[in-house]
Amino acid sequence: APRLLHGNQSTQLILQAAFPLQQQGTFAAATQQQQQLQQQQQQLQQQHQQQQQQLQQHHQQQQQQLQQQQQQQLQQQQQQQQQQQLQQQLAAHRSDR
């Protein structure tokens, strides 16, 4: 009885039987090409992820800057209000005399 082979082994044996040596060479070249393509795809995915991370970081920085600007504006408004109140109090105090 023929013994059962691993999936990979059996396909390799079938290929060896079906293809002469020259074609096996092209098959090897094709698998090598496929591996290179997979590597390129992985590199592209990594680049894409890095770009997205950079975009997110940039976005976060922009938001932080916006928040800081808003806080500064608030502080300025509060200071202006305090100054106005002080001036009003001073004016009222002077007119009291």
Put the structure in a nutshell.
With 97 residues, the chain is mainly α. The protein is 91% helix and 0% strand.
Question: Could you walk me through the main structural features you see in this protein, from its secondary elements to its overall organization?
Answer:
This protein is mainly α and 97 residues long. The protein has a domain at 41-97. 91% of the residues lie in helices and 0% in strands. It contains two helices and no strands. The protein has helices at 7-18, 21-96. The protein is rod-shaped and about 115 Å long. The model has no long low-confidence stretch (mean pLDDT 85).
Q: End-to-end distance, in Å?
A: 122 Å
Class inferred from helices and paired strands: mainly alpha
Mean pLDDT: 85
Please tell me what the overall shape is: rod-shaped
Strand fraction equals: under 5%
> Could you give the count of β-strands?
0
What is the element string, with H for helices and E for strands? Answer: HH
Q: What is the assembly state of the chains in this entry?
A: single chain
Query: Unreliable segments (pLDDT under 50, ≥5 consecutive)?
Result: none
Number of helices: 2
| Largest sheet properties | none
Radius of gyration: 37 Å
Percentage of residues in helical conformation: over 70%
Protein name: Circadian locomotor output cycles kaput 1a
Coiled coil: 27-96
Keywords: Coiled coil
